[in-house]
Design brief:
The complex is a heterodimer of chains A (470) and B (313).
Chain A (H helix, E strand, L loop, with lengths): L5 H14 L4 H17 L5 H21 L3 H38 L18 H16 L9 H9 L1 H4 L7 H9 L6 H33 L8 H32 L17 H7 L2 H12 L9 H19 L3 H21 L10 H23 L3 H9 L8 H27 L10 H18 L13
Helix pairs in contact in A: 2-6, 3-4, 3-5, 3-6, 4-5, 6-8, 9-10, 9-17, 9-18, 10-15, 10-17, 12-13, 13-14, 14-15, 15-16
Chain B lengths: L6 H36 L1 H14 L10 E7 L1 H6 L2 H8 L3 E7 L5 H13 L6 E5 L2 H4 L6 H8 L5 H8 L3 H12 L1 H17 L3 H5 L12 H20 L4 E5 L10 H10 L3 E3 L20 H18 L4
Parallel strand pairs in B: 1-2, 1-3, 3-4, 4-5
Helix pairs in contact in B: 1-2, 1-10, 4-14, 5-12, 7-9, 7-10, 8-9, 9-10, 12-13
The chains are: A mainly alpha (470), B alpha/beta (313).
Chain lengths: 470, 313
Amino acid sequence: MFFDSTAYIVFLTVVVVIYWRLSFRSQNYFLLAASYFFYGWWDWRFLFLMAGSTLFDFLIARSIGRSNDPAHRKRLLILSLVLNFTFLGIFKYFNFFVGSFVHLTSVLGLKNIPVSLWSIILPPGISFYTFQEVAYIVDVYQRKLEPADSLVDYALFISLFPHLIAGPIQRPSHLLPQVQRPRSWNSDKAFNGLILILEGLFRKVVIADNCALIANAAFDGRLEGPNLMVLLLGTYAFAWQIYGDFSGYSSIARGSAQLMGFHFMVNFRQPYLAESLQDFWRRWHISLSTWLRDYLYIPLGGNRLGSLRTYINLMLTMLLGGLWHGANWTFVVWGGIHGAGLALERLLTGTREVAKSSSFAMRWLWRIVIFNLVCVAWVFFRIPSIRGAYEQILSAGTWHWLPVYGVALEFLAVYSVILFLVDLQLEASGGEYLFETRSLGLRVATGLVFCVLITLFGANQENAFIYFRF
Amino acid sequence: MHSSISVSNEGNTAQALKVLLAALLLYCCVLEVVAQAGFPRLSRIQRRIASGKRDALALQPTSAEGAKTVLLLGNSLVVHGVDTQLLHKEMAPRLQSNVFAIENTQYLDWYFGLRRLFAEGSHPGVVALCLSTRQLISKGTDGEYFAHYIMQGRDLLSVRKEAKLDVTTTSNFFFASHSAWLGSRASIRNWLLGELMPNVEQLTAYLPQQVSAMPSGDVVVGEGMRRLQTLEALCASHGTRFVLVIPPSMRPGDRSDELQAAAESVGIRVVIPYRAAEMPASYFEDGFHLNSQGAVAFTEKLALALLEEEPRN
């Protein structure tokens, strides 16, 4: 059930209406059932995997919480981490590693290795709920969090449907207490939630799906490339597509949660207005970047072990962050570009925010540089092979012009500028919601404008949310 | 999580929430009404489709003048490739032609479309379905437009099975079958975009997915025959003769000869007025659709072929 489908709108409406008529405990039971229904909509067989994983981590966390024996606690932590990452590895990376092994052996001259690739279907959202479970276990182990008493509460924390498939990855300390305490109706929160849903749908079906038409045509060779114009069109279109797609998903998720009295962390803060790569990662997929910082970069030593080790840690974190996105070397390269960029930035500027102290024009210059650097990395993210991405980048040396490129540019400009203006407003206000401090009349009108744009200009082709496959 | 806003603000927000919800509901109702009443008036294509359907529904096996009625169904290949007036003229007085074509339609659209036409009272003497071999074996449909304007709501589960739809698409079809807005939103969006950005038409020619390689002869004949037999049985159960018409193609290797031979061996008629790659390239407008010159040539041969297929009374 995709967030931009009619079925989801009906589902959400029914859930919200019933939900607010129930008592607190019944609300949790009902939401758990609704979340499992939502997940089972794709493939009911994966419910068992999620339920099993939930039960396992619930029991492990309780044992860790009760035990005072450090060695025993550590053994339980390792058991949980091994099992969680094994499941993730089997479902997401098995074919990738086996395929890479076969490729490597063939390069070394060893042919006909009797290894067959399995046809493994990736369970939706496994990367997201695994990271959430790991965060919970680690927090309980570090005694930052009490283990949940109720299996229903914990299962709801893991499976609450707005974040289940593509995040934002919720921190246990933020969401679990909300699940465990009664929630009361709050019109302000619900109103903001509704606006977020409309804004999210606008980002997805108007911006992302229309930009996808150009990005797909460019990178699938339908615009008679490769050449510089096709590369630019494809790359910029994909940059706005993935941003509209994922930030749209996150907005709908946050908005849906707010209609039920929950609050999710903000996942995007105008990333294309970043003034450095470090700044970009404070604005892009914040729930993942902070997860990687807290559960990978800092445990690796962070910046506490000297400069060289800091660079290595940065690189490792970004490479693994890249691999998290998908089982393909292109994602590793994407992570590597960001890791190298972050390391280089640190080497050149230390921890100083250079752009912050610059003039207005310089700040904008930095923004443009960073946006384009991010776009170069997107080429590896979008194209399914390193060779393909490399060839596309090399085509920057070839100039060719067709009248259709002008039309494509005009089409892309119309859609990207709208989202850019939305971001400028959010950046200027510093708020969580569009026109947060303006009059309610203006905000109602904004919601209606989004609705009109969604219904009249939503793209025709059905593009699943990109991050659903991560 | 309790909000820190004051009671009066909370009251104002509650009011704004109600206003927004009411406005959204009202807007959806307006969209539905516009789609029901305004869309056929705004869109030239939709007017043509509505008129084609009206005529198709009124068909009886023979016309008032005693001519056997032929309902020619198809997609843009028919819209561009058949000169309807010429076809009518060439086939009279023995046969009376009626053309009902909807862009982007393929086998499943017309199998389920025929079920609906028969159910709603259409009773032509002959159904001639014009599809390429690739379209005959395709699993695709025209999406939500098909769900609203072509299929019957009660066929949804059969559509799901035949088109191998996932649950989300099935539910989209379900909602579209009940809403003119959902059924026509893609067409309305295209029309609006064309009005606001006239140049965009240049771009749309580059947007469709590239066509995959033609499946092997075994696949085309195997799946094609299964589908032809289904169509033949459906038409026979309503006392209608069925003919498949293969439109001209610029590319060779469409497997139409193999399909025709297999179909004839079981008594199903497959008409091929022009063999694949037989028609000159200058008769094609864009490598796929015929231009007016091609349409005249194809229509003349099509009329002859249909007349030959139909025994004299």
